[in-house]
Amino acid sequence: MELRPMRSWIHHSRGKVLRQAGAGRKALPDLHEDMLTRQGFEGRDAHLYRRNEPTNWKRVEENADNLDFDGRVLEPTDLTDADGGPLRLFHNPDVSIWVSRRSANMTYSARNADGDELYFVHEGTGTFYTEFGPIPYEPGDYVLVPKGTTYRIRPAGPVNYFLIVESVEELGFADIGPLGRRAPFDPALLYVPTPELDELGDGRNEDGEWPVRIKTLGEYTSAFYDFDPIDVEGWKGDLFPFKINIRDYRPIMSDRMHIMPSASAMFATPSFMVGALLPRPLESAADAEPFPPYHRNMDYDELSFFHRGTALSLEIAPASISVIPRGLHHGLPHAIMENIRKKKIDRTDMEMIFVDTVRALIPTPEVQAARRWEHYSQVRQETPGDGQ
Ligand SMILES: [Fe+2]
What we know:
InterPro entries: HgmA_N, Homogentis_dOase, RmlC-like_jellyroll, RmlC_Cupin_sf. Keywords: Dioxygenase, Iron, Metal-binding, Oxidoreductase. This is Homogentisate 1,2-dioxygenase. Belongs to the homogentisate dioxygenase family. By secondary structure, this protein is mainly beta. It folds into two domains: 181 residues, Sandwich (Jelly Rolls), CATH 2.60.120.10; 171 residues, Jelly Rolls (Sandwich). It is built from three helices and 26 strands. The strands form five sheets. An eight-stranded antiparallel beta sheet has the order 13-17-18-24-21-22-3-26, with no helix packed on it. Strands 16-10-7-12-5-4-25 form a seven-stranded antiparallel beta sheet. Strands 9-8-11-6-14-15 form a six-stranded mixed beta sheet, with no helix packed on it.
């Protein structure tokens, strides 16, 4: 069992506060709850009760704003060239985020010697053809390809969209604590491949060779074969690729208080976590706030990839990518909070993938070109009124 840091019981309260954070707001109707937090939502924190919405800034200078990107305009080389590859969007020494829009069968096999790859399938169906066997994919799938695995992707059609999280450290499942071994998903739901030789003979270049394109130290180099390197007829062990769909994850919730997003982490290393916010009823207890308070997540950058649905009635384009750098306030626009409080919204249909990283994410020039410049206050102004 992994030892957890001891919980701090040294708490003080000064002035006007809610006795139970996130509940009983009617006791302080004119104040906004704002959370300052360390180590995600697991470390020490403070709740501040302030007069104004902390996201209601009049204007911001560069690097003081939440970042918003249009994922639909990103064009990795694999969108138009079968010999192409994914596009890197963000990176730090621990993790990098890529997009692939592969439209045709690969003319090579891939092998990443720099880290594990976690593919999230936003659009498209097809097959990951791995040396452990084929893994069919569909939207909502996570496909985990361990470091060193040789594979190629065979899309069923030209429209595919993958978000790829590349991890230097071994990527495993997040610690689920005392929930039991079958929650929030049953490990029996993992799809684990069985070896199968590729009868199509894919993965060849124009000269008829089978290249294996190896990514090492951030660069690409290739080994060439006269036979298909995906030629495994059997395997055994505890290191293998697999897939699981977000529909197989059953979100943890409480009817009486909002559970912070970090409880929805599915994969984790010591330096980042990956999870999804998924459809579920909202908290219904009369005194419960069905959303997180305004907060500053001081030890994490928060990257979000919008897969499907709406953000509590706010329309967001699929494949929108946002990054909230540490130290910046964020939270739901006030009009949406009021709609929810009046029970005009009692369910969330949002499907959003998050990647929270301990070290700051550095955007590449390619993703900067896809940046949308509307900032938070503009989103708020465009939010429909509270329907009074
Ligand atoms: Fe957050």
